[in-house]
Amino acid sequence: MAEERDKKQEESVNEEELKAETTPETDGAGDKADASQEAAQEETPEEPKEDKKEKKKKEKPDKKQEALKEKIGELEDRVKRQMAEFENFRKRTEKEKTMMFETGAKSVIEKILPVVDNFERGLATIPEEEKGGAFAQGMEMIYKQLLTELENMDVKPIPAVGEEFNPDFHNAVMQVASEEFASGVIAQELQKGYTYRDSVVRHSMVAVVE
């Protein structure tokens, strides 16, 4: 019995020695693991200061580029508007010039038409036996030349006799009875009318059948 007790005491002593030897080693390993984790955390910082500066530098040029793009867009829009306004002004000026030219041309034509009327009256009064003479032929040639120049200017006589009365082209000064023409038809032309480029320069003075 005494021998068994001694053995148990020796075993318990050996176990305590083993525990004493192993516990310091495990504590040291734990400290080393904690130290390595702290070192790893220290080695991986969140963001270096140099990277932040570079990001700020990149952000500034981007904002400048956006502002420049907006300014360029505004200038392009302004230029387009000015070009459109200039084009409208050019068209309006061309139209006004054309209207002024038309007005001036019509004024000149109105002054020439009485000369044409006088030529026609003069030629109508020449006796039949004198129409082959030099004077009559000269008058006829001048009259034809004048009509040719007016036609080249797009001046044309308004058709009258036998045409239906049209207030846009004819000016009725009297009504007559006629067996040849129906009612409302022009039977006689008292003064010839003319148009210039489809606009009336002078209305025809006519007699209309009742």
Describe this structure in words.
The protein is an alpha+beta fold. Among the domains are: 71-153; 156-210, Nucleotide Exchange Factor Grpe, Chain A, domain 2 (Roll), CATH 2.30.22.10. Helix content is 65%, strand content 14%. It has three helices and six strands, in the order αααββββββ. It has helices at residues 2-43, 49-124, 134-152; strands at 155-157, 170-176, 186-191, 194-196, 199-202, 204-209. Strand 4 (194-196) and strand 5 form a beta hairpin. Helix 2 packs antiparallel against helix 3 (134-152). The longest helix has 76 residues, at 49-124. Mean pLDDT is 79; it is low at 22-30.
Share of β-strand residues: 5-15%
List the uncertain runs.
Answer: 22-30
What is the helix/strand order?
HHHEEEEEE
Count of helical regions:
3
Largest sheet composition? 3 strands, antiparallel
Helical fraction: 55-70%
Radius of gyration: 58 Å
Would you tell me the overall average pLDDT? 79
Number of strands: 6
Class inferred from helices and paired strands: alpha+beta
Question: Terminal Cα separation, in Å?
Answer: 170 Å
Strands in their spatial order, largest beta sheet: 1-4-5
Rough outline: elongated
